[in-house]
Amino acid sequence: MNLIVVGSGIAGLSAALHAHERGHSVTVVTKGSLGDGCTGYAQGGVAGLYGPDDSPALHAADTLTAAAGLADPAAVEILVDGAAERIAELIARGVAFDRSADGSLLRGREAAHSRARIVHAGGDATGAAIAGTLVAATRASDVSVVENAFLLDLVVTDGTARGVRLLIDDVSTVLEADAVVLATGGAGHLYSHTTNPEGTTGDGIAAAIRAGAAVADLEFVQFHPTILAAGPAFLVSEAVRGEGATLIDDEGRRFTLESHPDGELAPRDVVARAIARRAAEQGSPVRLDATMLGAETLRRRFPTIDRVTRQRGFDWSTTPIPVTPAAHYLMGGIVTDTDGRTTIPGLFAVGETARTGVHGANRLASNSLLEGAVFGARAAAALALPWPAASDTRPVAPPAPVSAARNTHAVPFTRAALQRLMWDEVGLLRSAEGIRRACDTIAVWAAQPLPLQSIADHEDANLLTLAAATATAALARTESVGSHHLESAIAPVLETV
Question: The pTM is what?
Answer without folding.
Answer: 0.92
